[in-house]
């Protein structure tokens, strides 16, 4: 008879059929009526629970079983701004774990309800109780009081970045190599939440393209990476959680790119209106950042980024309202002209 642990490991292997191997598209645009150019985008809203965080959640649990850091039935507790919570709620449930998600109380209602609907418990933390940092402290306290608690600790767990190195980055590399044009990308850019995406994808792409530039992206309204301190609030949910995560090594990366949250909203709306791609606010931010880098560096080669999730969790946010255009915004000067899906690997 198969042991419980072997059965769970088999389930994890099976789940990789529903996580990763996402489509990649070439998005074409014109900036200020210039020539048509393209950005290459990995569409992460195609994962099991609809976000890039499924990769990290599944990989961390796989490694935890391999290293015996978790036992069947342990309660998974994580402090998260949302997508990670949804990923652990769903995957943890499938593997037979109770899941408790601790999150700031200002996150969108959709995220909270989705986590609950996957069977997880939610613990909301107010700004006065410490917001993101307070959530992490509460998770650590719960672990101290209960030996049957497993903490994924996404902000410091090296398997978070490794998940993106071994899956997201590897897939992007293969998808580009499959292109007949033999693309040599000049840059990869990603908004930083935990930093797992930029660090992991960046590490893999550097092995293929040693000169590639790796740009972390942050909201202009909350430039924690640039200023090294917590400051300002912003509307790009999923990035800039008010501190610099342990797994992010800014010294190994290139220039930090800033985008305004309103501009990111306008770009996400444009992706829906002009291409029918209904994606989240950080996807708008990432595409905007990629276009900014391509224009600044005048790079004709590909710039790569990701769409971390779809718009479905933001239907009660400013993403569906009329967003005022402000001075310095780039989106009004960008016309999206189409997209082309690349073959899957
Ligand atoms: N966008 C969204 C919508 C996210 O949920 C996250 C993860 N917090 C990110 C971007 C950033 O990804 P990472 O944590 O890998 O830096």
Q: Give the ligands present.
A: 4'-deoxy-4'-aminopyridoxal-5'-phosphate
Shape descriptor = globular
Count up the domains.
Answer: 2
CATH architecture of the largest domain: 3-Layer(aba) Sandwich
Rg value: 19 Å
The first-level CATH class name of the largest domain: Alpha Beta
Given helix and strand content, the structural type is: alpha/beta
Q: How many DSSP-defined strands?
A: 11
From the N-terminal CA to the C-terminal CA, the straight-line distance is 36 Å
How is this structure best described in words?
The chain is α/β, with parallel strands linked by helices. The chain folds into 2 domains: 4-47 and 158-341, Rossmann fold (3-Layer(aba) Sandwich); 53-150, Rossmann fold (3-Layer(aba) Sandwich), CATH 3.40.50.1100. Helices cover 38% and strands 18% of the residues. The protein contains 10 helices and 11 strands. It has helices at 4-15, 53-66, 83-94, 109-117, 131-145, 158-178, 196-208, 224-227, 261-275, 281-296, and strands at residues 24-31, 36-43, 75-79, 99-104, 121-125, 149-150, 187-191, 213-219, 257-259, 303-307, 334-341. The chain has a 7-stranded mixed sheet, with helices on both faces. A 4-stranded parallel sheet has the order 5-4-3-6, sandwiched between helices. A hairpin with a 4-residue loop joins β1 and β2. The longest helix is centred in the middle third of the chain and has 21 residues, at 158-178. 51% of the residues are buried. Bound molecules: 4'-deoxy-4'-aminopyridoxal-5'-phosphate. 4'-deoxy-4'-aminopyridoxal-5'-phosphate binds at residues 51, 53, 81, 83, 191-197, 238-239, 280, 282, 308-309.
């Amino acid at each position: 008879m198969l042991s419980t642990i072997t059965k769970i490991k088999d389930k994890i292997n099976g789940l990789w059929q529903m996580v990763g191997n996402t489509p990649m598209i070439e998005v074409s645009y014109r900036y200020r009526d210039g020539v048509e150019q393209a950005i290459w985008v990995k569409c992460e809203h195609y994962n099991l629970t609809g976000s890039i965080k499924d990769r990290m959640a599944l990989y961390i649990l796989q490694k935890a079983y391999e290293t015996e850091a978790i036992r069947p039935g342990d309660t998974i507790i994580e402090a998260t701004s949302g997508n990670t919570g949804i990923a652990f709620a769903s995957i943890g449930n499938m593997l037979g774990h109770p899941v408790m998600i601790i999150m700031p109380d200002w996150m969108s209602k959709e995220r909270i309800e989705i986590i609950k609907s996957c069977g997880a418990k939610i613990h909301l933390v107010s700004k006065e109780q410490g917001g993101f940092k307070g959530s992490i402290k509460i998770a650590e306290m719960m672990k101290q009081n209960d030996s049957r608690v497993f903490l994924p600790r996404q902000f410091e767990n090296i398997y978070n970045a490794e998940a993106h190195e071994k899956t997201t980055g590897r897939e992007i590399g293969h998808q580009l190599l499959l292109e007949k044009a033999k693309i040599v990308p000049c840059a990869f850019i990603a908004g930083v939440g935990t930093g797992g995406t930029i660090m992991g994808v960046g590490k893999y792409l550097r092995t293929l393209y040693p000169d590639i530039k790796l740009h972390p992206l942050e909201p202009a309204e909350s430039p924690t990476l640039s200023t090294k301190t917590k400051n300002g609030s912003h509307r790009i949910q999923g990035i800039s959680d008010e501190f610099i995560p342990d797994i992010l090594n800014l010294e190994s990366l290139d220039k930090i790119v800033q985008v305004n949250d309103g501009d990111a909203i306008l770009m996400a709306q444009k992706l829906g209106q002009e291409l029918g791609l209904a994606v989240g606010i950080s996807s708008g931010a990432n595409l905007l950042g990629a276009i900014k880098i391509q224009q600044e560096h005048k790079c004709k080669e590909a710039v790569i980024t990701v769409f971390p999730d779809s718009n479905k969790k933001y239907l009660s946010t400013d993403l569906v309202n009329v967003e005022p255009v402000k001075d310095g915004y780039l989106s009004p000067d960008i016309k999206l002209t189409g997209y082309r899906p690349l073959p899957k690997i």
